Amino acid sequence: MPQAQRGKVEEAGMTGRWRSAVPSREEQHALKRRAVVKEAGRAFGRFGFHNTSLDDVARALHISKPTFYRYFENKQALLFECHTLALDLGEESVAFAQRNGATGLDKVLLMIRHYVAVYARELGAVGIVTDFHSLAPEHRRIVQKRRDRFDRILRGFVSEGIADGSIPPCDPRMVVSCFMGAINWVPVWFSSAGPRSGEELAEAFARIFATGLQSATADAGKALSMKLSPSPVTS
Amino acid sequence: MPQAQRGKVEEAGMTGRWRSAVPSREEQHALKRRAVVKEAGRAFGRFGFHNTSLDDVARALHISKPTFYRYFENKQALLFECHTLALDLGEESVAFAQRNGATGLDKVLLMIRHYVAVYARELGAVGIVTDFHSLAPEHRRIVQKRRDRFDRILRGFVSEGIADGSIPPCDPRMVVSCFMGAINWVPVWFSSAGPRSGEELAEAFARIFATGLQSATADAGKALSMKLSPSPVTS
Amino acid sequence: MPQAQRGKVEEAGMTGRWRSAVPSREEQHALKRRAVVKEAGRAFGRFGFHNTSLDDVARALHISKPTFYRYFENKQALLFECHTLALDLGEESVAFAQRNGATGLDKVLLMIRHYVAVYARELGAVGIVTDFHSLAPEHRRIVQKRRDRFDRILRGFVSEGIADGSIPPCDPRMVVSCFMGAINWVPVWFSSAGPRSGEELAEAFARIFATGLQSATADAGKALSMKLSPSPVTS
Amino acid sequence: MPQAQRGKVEEAGMTGRWRSAVPSREEQHALKRRAVVKEAGRAFGRFGFHNTSLDDVARALHISKPTFYRYFENKQALLFECHTLALDLGEESVAFAQRNGATGLDKVLLMIRHYVAVYARELGAVGIVTDFHSLAPEHRRIVQKRRDRFDRILRGFVSEGIADGSIPPCDPRMVVSCFMGAINWVPVWFSSAGPRSGEELAEAFARIFATGLQSATADAGKALSMKLSPSPVTS
DNA sequence: TATGAATGAGGTTTCATTCAT
DNA sequence: AATGAATGAAACCTCATTCAT
Q1: What's the rounded mean pLDDT across residues B129-158?
Q2: pLDDT tens string A41-89
Q3: In its keyword annotation, does this UniProt entry include Cell wall biogenesis/degradation (chains A, B, C, D) (predicted)?
């Protein structure tokens, strides 16, 4: 995987050279930088920020550790970049939903579908949403702010849905936390190399949060009200 | 990573989780041991295993760091205990669902409700599901095995639901990963000190995964098929 | 410091105060104390001072660690006691040699034989001669002084032997270091449970340092001068 | 001494070879590695493994503690290396003796002389023979095996000597333990900075174990049998 | 008296980060 | 530009030693 990554980078650099006599330094730099982000992000998402040493990342990219510092001020800067990327994707998804959704429910579902799809595509880079607390304080503040805004908008979608009748009365915070949890958990288990594509995943998630798991034909409401009655925490 | 946020567990410990009632000798040992697990688990879940030093935990419990080693062989053993606890709760929930659920859907929903409720109750102690990769290899193997079994059963519930008609055709793996992700994410954001109780949370989650977000009156199916059509990954 | 010292003082005081009828308590104390010295000394000699924790010693004696401190001020006091014991035996051997030896050679050999025998008998307690550097500084100074005196006397024996013709000219320091090394090494390998008794060992050592390894019949002197000629360090 | 050590290393590295002005990377690494072994070995031999902290060694070498880990996996690995070195020298000495000795006695004496000389030359590096029990279990097993083989060969030399008449009947195990003890004890007291060279030491030891301490003219055998008669352990 | 519990001091080890080539 | 070497900071852990029962 790292090998492939590296291959791509070099190839891209070559092509640049052949086409225009001088490959711009900055382009090369940007390409390598991106390669580092992707590889590190993938590792962070998979094993966790602290379980991934720079040595690991460097080894995977076939570069040396000091080289790393040509591209990032420090390890935490890299983590910040990953978070930033994830938030970019989230905001993009939100914007997409706002553009294309009519009702509140529409927006929520479009957002979920879009985000999951893009999430699955970029994957590793965003898997680290988990490691929020490893961010440097100043970075953390920035990310926190964007996250808050993000959540506020999502809860707004839900509220909107309740208002326009597309979503039944509920606590928006819980609803949002529920589906965002499901989404954030994706990198823990999903692999694009698996039997399902990211698109399928997005579709499935959207459907689940749209209609739930119950069969349309079954009189699920009744079954539920009956079966869930025994207090579940009687252990 | 000095700047990274440290577990601010002290606050929670102030209430005196350490110094409590004084029962017998062995019971006391067990009680203290459990207190360590809960406090550490809470911190691990909130800040991450590596962002929580034993010093933090010790300070929160008003004990010294070495004292810690009277109760656990090492830090990873504690993490393992947390995982074990989480898995115990999960299996208990599964058993509960198997006892009380009629259809596949029933079992899934009962399991979700039970698990979320118990999860929220014990909270911190199970938050560490995230830090699977910080486990010692031999512990990891054990946890992996139990997890696999757990997932298999859950997927079995879904398959059963498809077979008995209570759940429409779908990929069980995706469905299970979806709601387990939502559940595992809970400790990241939920606080029992917040406006909602664990019971309410459990209820809300069960409902979401039962009927989805759409209003019963709305012709959601149609809206969905129309609105979700544009390729969402056009970034 | 000198638990021994302290003990003596108290004992003297006791005797003065209560005149007679010493309760068996003190005897018990002395017995247990000796048991601790023997067990710890054995372990120290076998595994080394630092590879033997007080937990180990306590476990071996079926007592608890704090109990240990009823008998010794600290771990190093115990080590000091062992050294003291070893030196006592050494000085006793020296005195024996001085009393019974006629020539310098006699004294050396008698000393070796006596010391080895007694050494093998007490064994563990003296095995720690090795761990001189683990002594507390103030103890180390005391031991050093006695050791110096001890060595000086032994070298005196050798010098005496050279003077009286019983030992051929040589460097006394080397000779003494040679046989003392052999003796000090005994506890590393010798076990009184083995096929040889301490007496046999003492006899064998005395013989080796008396006549060497060469057969009396062989013209070893010549063989040696010939065979040893090639520079041995040509590696 | 550390200063001197370091000086040597740098000198060797700086001045380099005639052939290639600068010693290759690997050579430098090897040189420094060896410097660490020598210094650590010296310290271990003098003060004991546990009385020598890595801080001490680092300070002596004018490096920082973590630097150490570029050359050795951990402290025990260094100890193992010391043992390995000592065994290498021992086996080399054995081989030398086998090549150059005619009788069993020859072999024993050549071995002693060679080993002591080389031992004194490399000194510190082998002083740790004492700290066998501080080895990691897997290392200990390896060392034990080599030691057994080594001892077996030495006892073979003695047996051979008895068979060919160059050594009088005796217990080979005791004899070997005797002179190996004397040798292993050397680093405890010998300093190459002292008045005697390693060669002189080797010569002296060989002579002692060849002909013993008795003067050639004296009728030592008789003196011994008479003088040693009183039971030496009558304390 | 004797012991389970607790801790301070100190050592080994890791790792992000800088230095020097 | 890129890398092998070096290090400061901080974490985990051990153990002799004391506290409190």
Answers
A1: 92
A2: 888 887 888 999 999 988 888 999 999 998 999 999 989 988 888 899 9
A3: no
From the list D109, D133, D235, the residue facing C51 with the nearest CB is D133
| Candidates D50, D113, D233, D234, partner chain C, best to mutate (most C CBs within 10 A) | D233
Q: Of C15 and B105, which is predicted with more confidence?
A: B105
Contacts of D207 in chain C (CB under 8 A): 170
Please name the chains neighbouring C, where neighbouring means 3+ C-beta pairs under 8 angstroms. Answer: D
- pTM of the full predicted structure? 0.79
Length of chain C: 235
User: CATH code at A38?
Assistant: 1.10.10
Chain segment C152-175, per-residue pLDDT in tens: 999 999 999 999 999 999 999 999
Considering the domain boundaries, does residue C14 fall inside one? no
Same domain, A146 and A83: yes
Domain membership flag for residue B5? no
B165: left (phi over 0), alpha (psi -120 to 50) or beta: left
Whole-number Å distance between alpha carbons of D69 and C182:
36
pLDDT for A175 beyond 50: yes
Strand F nucleotides below 7 A of a protein CB? 1-20
Residues in C touching D118 (Cβ below 8 Å): 232-233, 235
Specify whether B97 is located in the same domain as B20.
Answer: no
From the CA of B6, how many Å to the C1' of E5? 28
Task: Identify whether the C-beta of residue D206 lies closer than 8 Å to the C-beta of residue D143.
Answer: no
Given a cut of 60, is residue B16 above it in pLDDT? no
Task: Check pLDDT > 90 for residue B99.
Answer: yes
Question: What is the domain-level CATH number for residue C81?
Answer: 1.10.357.10
Same domain, D190 and D80: yes
Mean pLDDT over residues B60-69, rounded? 92
Of the partner residues A174, A175, A227, the one whose CB lies closest to the CB of residue B100:
A227
Closest nt by CA–C1' to A28? F1
In a domain, C66, yes or no: no
Q: Within a domain: residue A221?
A: no
Closest Cβ–Cβ partner in B93, B174, B189 for A177: B189
In a shared domain, residues D91 and D179: yes
**Physical contact, D and B (3 or more Cβ pairs within 8 A):** no
Asked if A80 and A66 sit in the same domain, the reply is no
Q: Which domain holds residue D59?
A: 2-70
Q: pLDDT tier at A167 (50, 70, 90 boundaries)?
A: very high
Q: Which two tokens stand for residue C134?
A: 């683990």
Alpha helices in chain C (DSSP H): 3-18, 24-47, 54-61, 65-68, 75-100, 104-122, 137-164, 172-189, 198-211, 220-227
